[in-house]
Amino acid sequence: MKAGRWFAFSLLGLFVLAAVLANLLKPEYAYLPPTEKVLKADKPAGQAVAANRRDDGQVALGRQMFYQETFGNEVFLTDVMGLVDGPFTIANVAKAIAGLRGEGTTNLQVELAETVTVGGETYHKGTKIDTGIDVPKGAYVPLGLPVKYAEGKVKVGISCAACHATVDPTTKLVVEGAPNTDLNAGLLLALATNSAAYFTHADIDNLKKYMGRSKRDVATADGRTDSLPDPDLLEQAVDSAFASWAPGNFDSTIDLVANPSQIPDSFTRGDHPYGWSGFAAAGPFKGLSSFSSNVHAQNSDPLAQVEASRPLFGLDKEVYFGTILQRAANPKYRFDPNSGQKPSVFFAAVDPTPGVPGINEMIKPPTFPKVSAVAPDGLYVSSPGYRVGEQVNAMAAWQNTLDPPAPKRSGQEKAIAHGRQVFIRAGCIRCHAGGAFTNNRVIPAPEIKTEPSRAKALKKTGLIFAKEPMLYSTDTPVPVPDNARAVRVPVAHADQEQAKLSFAHGDSPGGYKVPGLLGLYWTAPYLHDGGVAVGPDAKQHLGLSGTMLKGIQPDPANSLRALVDKQLRQQVVQANRRSPQLQKTHAQGIGHEFWVDATTGFTSDDQQALVQYLLSLSAVEEEGQRSGK
């Protein structure tokens, strides 16, 4: 056996052994980077995050949760969706990591274990795909992909770090809080054996379209009979939708529309409300805890929405259950329509978290089954053995300590100072003001004119929305006892028109929150759909079609220039519109038409200085500006 292959198999053995030991000694194993493996933001001596100082133990817990906590989503991802049961396998992930020989990567290239066709494209066995999975230097496990050994198999989950931390391309150190801008989530989901379990994130507006010849009838909740879709036909449609996502984008809303948005950063201090539409604005840490809860209660466990399936999707709960489970990767969770059982009865017998909907570790707030401003999906993630909200509150406290590392800009001081003046003169500061360079407002979609689909994604939640959000007191243990004290979450002070915009309730068109500008160097491409993308060659690498879809990383400076240069933006939008793949996912790069170019009286030097200023923004420089340094 060749040395390289032997090394790969040895590593796989260690990988599995680590998972087994993890199962015996602690619930799971995930990479938690030591401080020397983290790229730090430069801070002047004595600077501290005084306004956000929290208990050291809470912050430490938050960092651990960010990297290691899955809230049990490995069951859905592995046993139901079959993330690693198809051509993308754990064995080949281990082989790919072995091939790095400890050097780390921002894009783990993994060989496919079998030939597969998704979205009309055939990937042959042995083909190396770009996963966008990050592996830090010196690490032999991926960032943000905890493993657990249970029920005789290795299961893979996802923690916050998979999307909201990355590896610096130069040093291969971890950049905490920076988005994983090339994570190829759509393709990885499409390669799963039961992608159909995630159908609410695809363009599946009517399951009746996918009925096959064989009858797959189930008894409905109201005593009638209804049919499940053909699992193979539905799988093909969902695979096609997911394979269209641009790397770095993720569809985090269950509106039966394919409208993925850019993975956001976690430089959260002062950047409320949270989410692209600003829907997370209530509860601890100005909505940040609710935002983290929403991710794990919805995006990694669609079964959590079973009680809301009728108002949100027009589906009987039994049809919803059966559609998700009929093709489950693990036979234990696979529902057989010919069994004569109701899908809900079948699931109850195998449910790893009885007492709450779905599979993940969650609680039912007092307002359940209604959704609310503090629980936009109706549930709140909390694991047994902790207190209600303890984990997401800790993650919020930790995220609020993060500052983006600033790019080295020696010799650029004069240009940066010029750029700040341009920033003010151009009026950018009207919206991008304050410590985090945001006025913390939601702007109506017709006003900002960016792609409107995503702004309306939460509209149907208005049908089941509790006007008074409630949670349990923070000293409540999980599981929640019957006599737990319920508390109202304050929202009376909130701007009701802003809240209506963020959820697109009633006749509202929805809107987008003014994002903070700290860390722009790490977050290209720009706008919520990631459509403003320009690569190193500003003449050739235009739009997502000329960058991310070709495996070319957007250049932050060129992409920012496209954000404020009318002529270059038009070229970017045209490039995006020529791509059927991008049109399918509502990615255009339109809107935010605030030009800083010749059309508004600015010179090319002004524009270049503005770009340099924007790229320099970090908590460190902002602190210096406010203190007059």
Notes on the structure:
This protein has helices at 3-25, 56-68, 73-80, 90-100, 161-164, 185-190, 231-243, 288-299, 309-313, 317-325, 343-350, 390-399, 413-425, 445-448, 496-503, 543-546, 556-564, 566-577, 580-584, 604-616, 619-626; strands at residues 109-111, 116-118, 121-123, 128-130, 147-150, 153-156, 165-167, 174-176, 217-219, 225-227, 249-250, 261-262, 362-363, 380-381, 442-444, 470-472, 486-488, 511-513. The strands form nine sheets. The chain has a two-stranded antiparallel sheet with strand order 1-4. It is 31% helix and 8% strand. The chain contains 21 helices and 18 strands. With 629 residues, the protein is of the alpha+beta class. The longest helix is centred in the N-terminal third of the chain and has 23 residues, at 3-25.
Relative strand content: 5-15%
Number of helices: 21
Give a quick account of the main beta sheet: strands, pairing sense, barrel closure: 2 strands, antiparallel
Task: Give the termini distance in whole angstroms.
Answer: 63 Å
Gyration radius, in Å: 24 Å
Summarize the amount of helix as a percent range: 25-40%
Mean pLDDT across all amino acids:
91
The low-confidence runs, each spanning 5 or more residues with pLDDT under 50, are: 1-11, 19-27, 44-52, 620-629
Report the structural category. alpha+beta
- Overall shape: it is globular
Q: Give the beta-strand count.
A: 18
Spatial order of strands in the largest sheet: 1-4
